[in-house]
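Morning, I've got a small favour to ask if you have a moment. I've dropped the whole record in just underneath, so have a look.
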Amino acid sequence: MWREWIVQSERQWNKFFNDVMGTDQYNQAMSRFMDIYLNGQKTLGEMMGRYLTGLNVATRSDVLAIGERLAAIDDRLTAIERHLGSPSGTDEASSSPASTAARPPRTRRPPAPAKG
């Protein structure tokens, strides 16, 4: 009896909300709400940017720009290293602390070759 009541209640609520969400008024209200929300978010972001600039603190966009610049510098250095090559071959490059720290330890082994 309870299960049937819950199923019927759920069907009625689903029909009601589907009918409401299918109207133009609902679509217009959601559109206005999203416009207000996005404008508020944009304004808040601009205000926080000005506030952090006034405090002489880096903003998120500043940190992202620095990260992009560092990635570009790293790419250029890698290209230069490839172009010049290391003087003693690849042994020196693989034993340097910077290159070993960048790689995670290998904990998985490759699958065994299939027999047959």
